[in-house]
Amino acid sequence: MRGAGGPTIIPPAHGRVAPRIGTVAAALIDALNAIQRDHRACERCVTAGLLERAHPVFSGRAGQRILLVGQAPGPVEDDVTRPFAGRAGAQLMRWFASAGFGGADEVRARVFMTSMTTCFPGRLSNNSGDRRPSAREVALCSDWLDAYLEVVDPALILCIGTLAHSRFLPGRRLEEIVGRAWSVEGEPIDGVPQVSPALLPLPHPSGQSRWLNDPGHVRMLDRALERLRELARWAQSTGG
Ligand code: SF4
User: Mean of the per-residue pLDDT values for the chain?
Assistant: First the structure.
């Protein structure tokens, strides 16, 4: 696939669990390196007059079996060029820890991290929070996400926040989807997935989100993290 000014990528193995016994193919590493190099140089939103400055933030390497899709980097992530490096990231790392991950280093070693748009969109005009990326920005950035989904070919996709949910499980309310795993066709997956990728939606860990003020929603998150514990083990068993 080649997007407008976008990456060239190698064919994926969708619709099945594809073990990669121990090693990551050199062609896969080369393809991913090429995409990441082009992604770092992307200025599409600046050219389109949507951003004053481009600074793509993402992290990951070939062989990772879990791919996380957030909304967009914030100012801290922009400063340090690392996804989920701020307060929301600290909360996300606590969620991973409760799902059995050993700490932030282990999370970053096992999880490819990107987002619906990968440049900091800036603050809201009233300074009450970060601006939600526009539909045009999401559309312009979608080639990069598409490319990562094909080349990384993750077994498990973690969708963080409503913008990511709207891409992977469109038309569903958070209350309907958090706590279970889903197929890309939107069917619930109980037990061990028979196909990959499996989707696992999580609410956004940002303090701006009030969704977790409801105790019932906290219980849904607990179920989601228990599912993450199971699915992370399963994802690892599919190769890498
Ligand atoms: S948000 Fe995405 S498409 Fe827009 S400039 Fe940044 S990397 Fe490019």
Answer: 90
Cβ-contact 240, 65 below 8 angstroms: yes
84: left (phi over 0), alpha (psi -120 to 50) or beta: left
Domains and CATH numbers, the chain: 26-118+129-237 (3.40.470.10)
The pTM score is 0.90
Other residues' Cβ atoms within 10 Å of the Cβ of residue 96: 24
pLDDT at position 209: 77
pLDDT of residue 71: 96
* Centroid of ligand 1 to alpha carbon of 232 (angstroms): 29
Residues in a beta bridge with 188 = 182
Atom 2 of ligand 1, residue of closest alpha carbon: 141
CB 35 within 8 A of CB 9: yes
DSSP one-letter code for 198: E
Question: Nearest residue CA, atom 6 of ligand 1?
Answer: 119
Structure tokens of 192? 């061990």
Distance from residue 139's CA to the centre of ligand 1 (Å): 10
Residues 103-119 pLDDT 10s? 999 999 999 999 999 99
**Pocket flag, ligand 1, residue 140 (CB < 6 Å):** yes
Q: What pLDDT shows up at residue 187?
A: 97
In short, whether 141's Cβ falls inside 6 Å of ligand 1 is yes
CA–CA dist 64, 49 (Å, integer) = 34
